[in-house]
Specification:
By secondary structure, this protein is α/β, with parallel strands linked by helices. About 15% of the residues lie in helices and about 20% in strands. Among the domains are: about 80 residues, no CATH class; about 170 residues, Leucine-rich repeat, LRR (right-handed beta-alpha superhelix) (Alpha-Beta Horseshoe), CATH 3.80.10.10; about 60 residues. It has 13 helices and 63 strands. It has a 33-stranded mixed beta sheet that branches. A 6-stranded parallel beta sheet has the order 30-32-34-36-38-40, with no helix packed on it. It binds 2-acetamido-2-deoxy-beta-D-glucopyranose (NAG) (4 copies).
C-alpha cells in the first residue's frame, strides 16, 4: 500500500507535467517545408500500422509531411528531425497497434517521443537502435513490455532516455549496453526490472559524467555499491532510487553528490545510520530528501544538524516511518525554506519514533505549509510559536503524548489552515478557546480533535468554516445537544464522527446529507435518545451504544437506500426487523445486536451481493433460520447467538459457500450436525453451537473443514465418541492472526480487521477469547464417551481444550505436552484414569488446568508450570492422586484403599455441581467489534489525506 501510494505519486505527477509541457511544444510545429518523399512514405506506413481510434493523425495526408501533427523537419534539408506522437491530454484514446519498421527510415530523427500511448504490451522495437542520431527518446508509460532491447546501446548520442514503466512489465537482464550511452543527461528506468548485474549498472551510470537526473525507482535492484572508487556523476541533481530492495545501509557516496537537489530513497529497505559524517558539508543544495519507509537507526537531532549545510535550500523533508529516534533540535528553526516536514508513523501501535517536545524555534519555519508529527512519542506542551506559521495548511499532531492546553493563540493566525488534527495519548491534553473566538482561517476542510478535552460545549468556532467536510470530535468531552449549525453544514459532510462523548437529546429528523459525498456518520457511545433517524444519502451509520428506542422504521431502506454499514447495536430497540432491509442493496455490514428485537430473522435477498457480516446476536428473535441466508453470495460472518431461535439444524445451512463464522450459541436449536456440513459450509472456520439441545454424534465430516479453528459444542446433548480425525484438522495447526477476518472498508480503501469475542467457561471461570485469533475446542457438558483421541496432540496451536463434564474414559494421551500453545485445559468431571503425563510439564503457556473428579492416579508432576498450580481443587475427586498440592502424600497412599476417599469425593462433587450450574447460568456472551472504530482508524484516514497533499507538494516542485 505504501509502495503504491509512492508509485502513484512519482508516476502520475510527472505525467501531468509532461502533458502540460508537450502541449506548448505542439503549437510551434507548423513549418511549411516540403518534406522528403521517402520519409513521407515511411510515415504513411507507420500510420497504417497504428490504431488511431481518436483520429489523432488525421492531418497525416498529402505530401507536406513537415506540416503534419507531431512532425518537425529541418528547415534547410527538409529531413524529419522530430517525431512526437504523445497524445493530447484531451484525447480520449491514445495510439496503439504496431510500430512499423519503416520508422527506421527516418535516418535524421533526433527526437522521438512515443510516450503515453498504449501499445498493449508489445516489446520495444529493436530497430529503434538504428536511429543513430537520436538524442532524445521517450518511451515512457506506453505499455511496452518484455525485454528492453540491448540495441538501445547503439544510440550513443542520446542525452535523454526515458523508459519509465508504470506497469512494471519491462525487464533487463544484461545491462552492459548502458555503458555506451555516456552522454546521457537524463535517464529514467523507473519500474524496469533490472535483475542481473546491478554492479554493472552502477559502473555504467558512473561513466555518465553529464548526468543530471537518474531515476531508478522500483527497479528491483538488490544491490547498491557500498563505495565507489571515483565519483564521476558530480553534476547529478536528481537521484531517485526508491522502492528497491537494497537491504543495506545507505552508502556514503550518495552524500558526496554535492550537486544533488533531490534525493529519493524511500521504501528501499535501507538500514542503519544515515552516513552524514563523511558527507556533512556536501549536500548544500538539497531541496528534497525522502527517506520514508526505511529502517534507519539514526538520531534525528544528529540528522538535522548534519543537514545544516542545506538549511537555506531544503524544502521537503520526508522521514515518515523511517524508524528515526531522538528529539527535534532547536536548530530545526534554521530551515527557513522548509515547506513540508513529515514524520508521520503509519504502523499502528508503534512504540518508536521521535520523542521530546516540539522546539519553540518551529515558529521560525516561515515557509512551512505542512507539519506532520502524527503517531510519534513526542510529549510536552505545544509551543505557542506554532501560531506564527501563517503558511501552514496542514497541521497533524495526532497520537503523541501532548500535555497542557492549546488555545486560540496557537491557531489564530494560521490563516491558510485546511486540515487540523490533534490528539494525545496523555489524558491531560485540552484545547480551550475563548467563547467568542472567530478563527482567521475560513476554509478548514478536515478537523480531527480526539482524545483531547474540547467540551463540555460543542466547539462553536467551527460554525463559520465554509468547506468543512470531515469533522471528527471523538472522545472530546462534549456534552449537551447537537448544535443547529451542524445541520446546516450537513450537505457538504462526508465524514462526521462524534463518538465517545456525552451528547444527549434527540437526533434532528432532517439532515441534508449528499449521497455523492458517501457520508459516514458516527454517533456511537453517546446518550442520544429517541428513534432511529432516517437520513437519506448516508452510506455508513454508526449509532452503537446510545439510548435509542422504538422500532427500526419499516421505510429505512427506502429512505436510506445508500446504506452500506449499519450499526445500531447496544440500544433499546424493539419490535421486528423490517423486511425491507432487503432493499438496501449496497449493505455490507449489519449489526443490530444487543437490543430487544423480536420476531423472526428476516429473509435476505440474493441481490444483497455485498452483505458480508450480519450480527443479530443478543436479541429475542424467534423462529428458524431463513433459507435465503445461504444465498447471500458474500456472507461470511453470521452471528445469531443468544436469541430464542429454534430449528432443526440438520436441514439448515445448505450451500453456504462463503460462510466462515457461524455463531448460534444459546438458542434452542435441535437435531444433529448434518453429515454434509463440510460440503454445505466448506469455508467454515468458527462453529459455535454452545447451549442448544443438539443431539447425535459429532460427525467425522467436521474434520474435512480445512480452516476450522474454533469448535464450541459445549452444553448440548451430543453423544458417542470424539472423532479421532479431529487431530488432522489443519486450522488448529496454524497460528491464527487478526487479518484472517479483515474486510475492505469502503472509506479508507484498506483492509481492516473485524473482531468479535466469545466467552468460554473454562475451569469455572469465564474466559474471553477473540474468536479470530484463537484455536479452541470446547466439547464440555455433553454425553460424550470413549477416549480422548491420541492424535489430538497434533493440534499444536490449540489454545484451549475443554472436555469437562462428559463420560470420557481412558488416559490422557502421553504426549499431550506437544500442545505447546495450550493455555487452558479442563478435563474435569469425566472417568479418565491413569497418571498425569509428565510431558505436560513442558506446556509452558498452560495457565489454567482442571483435572478434578476423574480417576487419575499416581503422583502430581512438580516440574515447571506444575509448581504454580497449587490450588488443590483442580485435582480433587481423584482419590488415587497424590503429592502437592493435595494433602495426601504419595508413600502413605499406596497402602490404603481408596474406597472411603471416593465416597467423600462424591459428596463434594454434588456441591461443586451446584456451583458450576450457577456459574453457567450467569454465562454471558460478551462481544466487541472493532469494526466501526477501526474502519475509521484515524491514522489511515490521515495517511490518505496526507497522501493527497503529498501529491500537491510534488506537483509544485
Ligand atoms: C528553422 O526555423 C526556425 C524558426 O523558423 C529558426 O529559429 C531556426 O533557426 C531555423 N533553423 C535553421 C537551421 O535555419
Ligand atoms: C523481476 O525478475 C525476476 C527474475 O526474472 C523475477 O523473479 C521477479 O519476480 C521480477 N520482479 C518483478 C517485480 O516483476
Ligand atoms: C569518468 O568519466 C570519464 C569520461 O566519461 C571516463 O573516461 C572515466 O572512465 C570515468 N571514470 C570512471 C571511474 O568511471
Ligand atoms: C517527555 O518524556 C521524557 C522521556 O519519557 C521525559 O524524560 C520528559 O520528562 C518528558 N517531558 C515532559 C515535558 O513531560
Amino acid at each position: 500500500m505504501m509502495a503504491c501510494t509512492k508509485i502513484f505519486g512519482y508516476y502520475v505527477i510527472p505525467l501531468l507535467f509532461l502533458f502540460a509541457s508537450i502541449k506548448c511544444e505542439k503549437r510551434s510545429l507548423n513549418v511549411s517545408t516540403l518534406c522528403m518523399k521517402e520519409e513521407t512514405v515511411a510515415l504513411l506506413k507507420v500510420k497504417k500500422d497504428l490504431n488511431d481510434p481518436s483520429d489523432y493523425l488525421s492531418s497525416w495526408v498529402g505530401k507536406d509531411c513537415c506540416s503534419w501533427i507531431g512532425i518537425q523537419c529541418d528547415n534547410q534539408t527538409g529531413n524529419i528531425l522530430n517525431l512526437n506522437l504523445q497524445p493530447d491530454l484531451l484525447s480520449p484514446s491514445p495510439l496503439g497497434g504496431k510500430i512499423n519498421p519503416s520508422l527506421a527510415d527516418l535516418k535524421h530523427l533526433s527526437h522521438l517521443d512515443l510516450s503515453r500511448n498504449d501499445f498493449e504490451g508489445i516489446p520495444i522495437p529493436e530497430f529503434i537502435g538504428s536511429l543513430r542520431r537520436l538524442n532524445y527518446l521517450d518511451l515512457s508509460y506506453a505499455n511496452f513490455s518484455g525485454r528492453v532491447p540491448s540495441q538501445l546501446g547503439f544510440l550513443s548520442n542520446l542525452h535523454y532516455l526515458n523508459i519509465d514503466d508504470v506497469t512494471r512489465t519491462l525487464w533487463v537482464r544484461d545491462i552492459s549496453w548502458l555503458s555506451s550511452l555516456s552522454s546521457l543527461q537524463y535517464l529514467n528506468m523507473d519500474g524496469v526490472n533490472i535483475t542481473d548485474k546491478p554492479h554493472q549498472l552502477f559502473r555504467s551510470v558512473n561513466k555518465m559524467s553529464s548526468l543530471l537526473e537518474l531515476h531508478l525507482s522500483y527497479c528491483n535492484l538488490a544491490y547498491i555499491p557500498p563505495s565507489l572508487p571515483f565519483l564521476n556523476i558530480t553534476s547529478l541533481s536528481v537521484l531517485d532510487l526508491s522502492g528497491n530492495p537494497f537491504n543495506s545501509s545507505i552508502p556514503s557516496w550518495l552524500f558526496n553528490l554535492s550537486s544533488l537537489t533531490e534525493l529519493h530513497l524511500s521504501d528501499s529497505s535501507l538500514t542503519g545510520l544515515v552516513p552524514f559524517t563523511r558527507g556533512r558539508h556536501k549536500l548544500c543544495k538539497l531541496e528534497v530528501l525522502d527517506l520514508d519507509f526505511n529502517d534507519l537507526t539514526s538520531d534525528i537531532t544528529e540528522m538535522i544538524e548534519a543537514l545544516s549545510c542545506s538549511n537555506q535550500s531544503l524544502r521537503f523533508l520526508y522521514l515518515s516511518d523511517s524508524q528515526l529516534t531522538g528529539k527535534l533540535p532547536h536548530s530545526l528553526g534554521k530551515f527557513i525554506s522548509l515547506e513540508d516536514l513529515d514524520l508521520f508513523i503509519y504502523s499502528e501501535n508503534s512504540h518508536t519514533g521521535v520523542s521530546g517536545p516540539i522546539p519553540t524555534s518551529i515558529g521560525n519555519l516561515s515557509s512551512l505549509e505542512s507539519l506532520n508529527l502524527g503517531n510519534n512519542m513526542m510529549n510536552g506542551t505545544i509551543p505557542e510559536s506554532i501560531g506564527k506559521l501563517t503558511n501552514l495548511y496542514t497541521l497533524n499532531l495526532l497520537e503523541n503524548y501532548w500535555e497542557g492546553t492549546m488555545t486560540n493563540i496557537h491557531l489564530h493566525n494560521l490563516t491558510n489552515l485546511i486540515s487540523l488534527s490533534l490528539s494525545s495519548k496523555h489524558n491531560s491534553f485540552a484545547l480551550k478557546v475563548t467563547n467568542d473566538w472567530v478563527p482567521t482561517f475560513k476554509d478548514l476542510s478536515n478537523v480531527e480533535i480526539s482524545s483531547c478535552q474540547v467540551g463540555p460545549t460543542f466547539p462553536n468556532w467551527l460554525r463559520d468554516q465554509n468547506s468543512l467536510n470531515e469533522i471528527i470530535l471523538e472522545s472530546a468531552g462534549i456534552s449537551g445537544k447537537i448544535p443547529h449549525w451542524l445541520y446546516n453544514m450537513s450537505s457538504q459532510i462526508s465524514y462526521l464522527d462524534l463518538s465517545h462523548n456525552n451528547i444527549s437529546g434527540y437526533f434532528p429528523k432532517q439532515m441534508n446529507f449528499t449521497s455523492s459525498n458517501t457520508p459516514s456518520i458516527d454517533f456511537s457511545f453517546n446518550r442520544l435518545k429517541g428513534s432511529i433517524p432516517l437520513w437519506s444519502g448516508v452510506s455508513a451509520l454508526y449509532l452503537k451504544n446510545n439510548l435509542l428506542s422504538g422500532t427500526i422504521p419499516t421505510n429505512i431502506a427506502k429512505e436510506m437506500s445508500q446504506l452500506s454499514y449499519l450499526d445500531l447495536s447496544n440500544n433499546y430497540l424493539n419490535g421486528r426487523i423490517p423486511l425491507s432491509l432487503n432493499e438496501t442493496q449496497n449493505l455490507f455490514y449489519l449489526d443490530l445486536s444487543n437490543n430487544y428485537l423480536l420476531g423472526e430473522v428476516p429473509e435476505f435477498s440474493t441481490s444483497m451481493q455485498n452483505l458480508e457480516i450480519i450480527d443479530l446476536s443478543n436479541n429475542s428473535l424467534s423462529g428458524g433460520i431463513p433459507t435465503s441466508i445461504c444465498s447471500l453470495p458474500s456472507l461470511y460472518i453470521l452471528e445469531l447467538n443468544n436469541n430464542n431461535l429454534s430449528a432443526n439444524l440438520s436441514s439448515a445451512f445448505e450451500n453456504c459457500i462463503q460462510l466462515q463464522t457461524l455463531s448460534l450459541e444459546n438458542n434452542k436449536f435441535f437435531g444433529s450436525i448434518p453429515n454434509e456440513i463440510s460440503k454445505n459450509i466448506p469455508s467454515l472456520s468458527e462453529l459455535l453451537l454452545r447451549g442448544n439441545t443438539l443431539t447425535g454424534s459429532i460427525p467425522k465430516e467436521l474434520c474435512h473443514l480445512p480452516s476450522l479453528h474454533l469448535l464450541d459444542l459445549a452444553e448440548n446433548k451430543f453423544s458417542g465418541s470424539i472423532p479421532t480425525c479431529l487431530g488432522n484438522v489443519n486450522g488448529f495447526k496454524i497460528p491464527q492472526t487478526y487479518f484472517n477476518y479483515s474486510f475492505l472498508s469502503s472509506r479508507v480503501l484498506r483492509y481492516v480487521p473485524y473482531m468479535k469475542h466469545t466467552n468460554l467457561v473454562i475451569n469455572g471461570r469465564i474466559v474471553e477469547y477473540s474468536k479470530q485469533t484463537h484455536s479452541i475446542i470446547d466439547l464440555s457438558k455433553n454425553n460424550l464417551s470413549g477416549e480422548i483421541p491420541v492424535n489430538i496432540t497434533q493440534l499444536i496451536h490449540l489454545g484451549a481444550l475443554n472436555l469437562s463434564w462428559n463420560h470420557l474414559t481412558g488416559n490422557i494421551p502421553n504426549n499431550i505436552g506437544l500442545l505447546k500453545d495450550l493455555e487452558n485445559l479442563d478435563l474435569s468431571h469425566n472417568n479418565l484414569s491413569g497418571p498425569i503425563p509428565t510431558s505436560m510439564a513442558s506446556m509452558t503457556f498452560l495457565s489454567y488446568l482442571n483435572l478434578s473428579y476423574n480417576n487419575f492416579s499416581g503422583q502430581i508432576p512438580t516440574a515447571n508450570q506444575f509448581g504454580t498450580f497449587n490450588e488443590p481443587s483442580i485435582y480433587e475427586g481423584n482419590p488415587r492422586l497424590c503429592g502437592k498440592p493435595l494433602p495426601s502424600n504419595c508413600s502413605s497412599l499406596l497402602d490404603r484403599s481408596g474406597e472411603q476417599e471416593r465416597k467423600h469425593g462424591d459428596d463434594e462433587k454434588i456441591e461443586r455441581l451446584k456451583l458450576y450450574a450457577s456459574i453457567v447460568a450467569g454465562y454471558i456472551t460478551g462481544f466487541w467489534i472493532v469494526c466501526g472504530s477501526l474502519i475509521l482508524k484515524r491514522s489511515w484516514r490521515n495517511a490518505y489525506f496526507n497522501f493527497l497533499y503529498d501529491m500537491k507538494d510534488k506537483f509544485w516542485f
